[in-house]
Recover the amino acids of this structure.
């Protein structure tokens, strides 16, 4: 019998058996009973929907596809010019920037983009950039992804927020000139080192390092907590059991500026029982420039959520929790039952670290910020501790894992929230004492300029940096389904993350930041401003949905967000 006949017969039998199974055997999918075999196309298309969503049609979530293209082009250091017209113009309503007739040249704009946090603390934090990478936990992000961000931050000279996972080994990837008194170092035998050198010859360096790690640590499930030191070909991780006196008195110069975030789970600064560990905190702050207490995040008003499969033994080691169990933090921060208690706790951290401490909140209306402003005012007058800064997250702030019902229902847009917080702090006479950081769907230089005009002193970007680090927005970040992040950035899946290009993407991360600053200078030049600190709300106009131009921003926001407060004030009087 001809081979092709045998193959055709075999295929026919398989299809027939498949048909019988779908129609008469399986009772899981209703549609397959009525449409055997062909009905499976529905599931195929469903699987393709998210990862391929970005390639078809207009962009609906990020204002325009042009903005996303800008991020990808900037990270690859490509020219960001458009021909003829935008492919998808920004929708109305929208903020517009006021330009000047007598513009400046780019080189006439000053390069000072620094921000000073905690000017009254013993060790203020003076940033090198007005932009920082937003909070992303090591755990939600792969170890390789975190390393790419750390390399990029060090090269680009911008701060990086640790996220609620705390300070892990991956934040020390650039810190090779350490003192062994606070670092645990492990080296291989001469034979193991020879194998490593041979592997470098026949394979690439990451593969060789991974092989070397496996040979040295064998079945140690915490092997990933060690970083490779190329200078002496050893592995190292921080020795948290070392005495505090051995830890550096100043942040090592070969580390990026790290903002330590503490969440309700107290990860990284907790005991096994979940209580705050002041000694562990002091040790972490030996390597960090300031602290952020996460009270709330735009996309989730609950505690942080890391599903069990992402809680690897390494992540469990960092967070002082059990491996392969859901790490769901409490909704309320344990030392924030009242504003007074929270601010007292902030005072403890300020005294322990001698560095700035701030809070991260989300705003729904003036009732969220007025009590905070009142308490800050009281404490300023009495000489009591208060937050050095307030970090505001927009209601649409991104996250890898959050309740869907909260993502678009809780919290104001960052622009409205920012105006409100800035105004209330000014009304209570405490604005000069408190810096404001802002985050929430900020991607491009014009976004940053608008946010700064509305009152922000500093901007934290998460989505843009994720995209610069290779994120293709497939929306598999949580790891809760059958699929993992396809690029290895937001997953703990060993096969996916081990093939992530750390050094390549670290360059992209650096480029993204540097091109934002470069393009911000161009915008400032067109606006006739020599320094970024000259930005204010008067530099904006607003185009509403009917194409009506509003040039009085205070009147605009009065109608947008302060209408209720105005009525309450009138009734009270």
């Amino acid at each position: 019998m001809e081979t092709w006949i045998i193959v055709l017969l075999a295929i026919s039998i398989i299809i027939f058996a498949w048909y019988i199974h779908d129609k008469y055997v399986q009772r899981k999918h209703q549609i397959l009973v009525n449409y055997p075999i062909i009905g499976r196309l529905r599931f195929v298309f469903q699987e393709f929907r998210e990862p391929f969503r970005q390639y078809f049609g207009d962009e609906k979530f990020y204002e325009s596809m042009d903005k996303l293209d800008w991020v990808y082009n900037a990270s690859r250091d490509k020219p960001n010019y458009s021909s003829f017209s935008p492919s998808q113009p920004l929708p109305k309503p929208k903020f517009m920037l006021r330009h000047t007739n007598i513009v400046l040249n780019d080189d006439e704009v000053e390069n000072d983009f620094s921000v000073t946090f905690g000017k009254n603390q013993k060790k203020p934090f003076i940033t090198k950039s007005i932009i920082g990478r937003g909070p992303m936990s090591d755990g939600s992000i792969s170890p390789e992804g975190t390393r790419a961000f750390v390399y990029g931050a060090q090269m680009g000279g911008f701060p990086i927020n640790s996220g609620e996972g705390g300070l892990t080994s991956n934040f020390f990837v650039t810190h090779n000139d350490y003192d062994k008194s606070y670092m645990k170092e492990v080296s291989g035998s001469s034979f193991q080192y020879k194998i490593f050198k041979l592997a470098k010859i026949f394979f690439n360096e990451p593969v060789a390092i991974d092989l070397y790690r496996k040979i040295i640590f064998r079945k140690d499930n915490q092997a990933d907590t060690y970083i490779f030191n190329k200078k002496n070909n050893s592995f190292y991780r921080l020795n948290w059991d070392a005495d505090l006196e051995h830890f550096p008195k100043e942040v090592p110069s070969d580390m990026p500026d790290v903002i330590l975030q503490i969440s309700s789970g107290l990860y990284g600064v907790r005991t096994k029982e979940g209580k705050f560990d002041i000694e562990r905190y002091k040790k972490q702050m030996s390597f960090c420039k300031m602290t952020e207490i996460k009270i709330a995040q735009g996309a989730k008003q609950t505690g942080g959520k890391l599903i069990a499969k992402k809680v690897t033994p390494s992540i469990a080691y960092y967070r002082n929790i059990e491996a392969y169990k859901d790490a769901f933090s409490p909704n309320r921060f344990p030392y924030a039952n009242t504003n007074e208690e929270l601010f007292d706790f902030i005072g403890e951290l300020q005294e322990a670290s001698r560095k700035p401490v701030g809070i991260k909140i989300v705003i729904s209306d003036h009732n969220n910020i007025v009590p905070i402003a009142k308490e800050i005012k009281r404490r300023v007058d009495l000489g009591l501790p208060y937050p050095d800064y307030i970090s505001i997250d927009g209601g649409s702030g991104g996250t890898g894992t959050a309740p869907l019902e909260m993502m678009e229902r809780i919290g104001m847009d960052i622009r409205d929230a920012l105006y409100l917080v800035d105004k209330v702090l000014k009304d209570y006479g405490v604005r000069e004492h408190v810096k404001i950081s802002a985050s929430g769907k900020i991607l491009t230089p014009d976004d940053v300029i608008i946010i700064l005009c509305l009152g922000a002193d500093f901007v934290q970007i998460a989505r843009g940096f994720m995209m610069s680090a290779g994120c293709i927005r497939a929306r598999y970040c949580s790891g809760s389904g059958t699929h993992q992040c396809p690029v290895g950035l937001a997953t703990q899946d060993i096969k996916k993350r081990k093939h992530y290009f750390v050094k390549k993407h670290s360059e992209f991360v650096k480029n993204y930041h540097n091109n934002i600053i470069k393009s911000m200078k161009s915008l400032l030049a067109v606006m006739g401003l020599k320094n970024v600190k000259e930005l204010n709300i008067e530099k904006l106009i607003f185009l509403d949905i009917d194409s009506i131009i509003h040039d009085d921003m205070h009147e605009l926001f009065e109608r947008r967000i302060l209408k209720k407060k105005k009525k309450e004030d009138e009734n009270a009087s």
The CA atoms of residues 229 and 272 lie 30 Å apart. The chain has a mean pLDDT of 89.
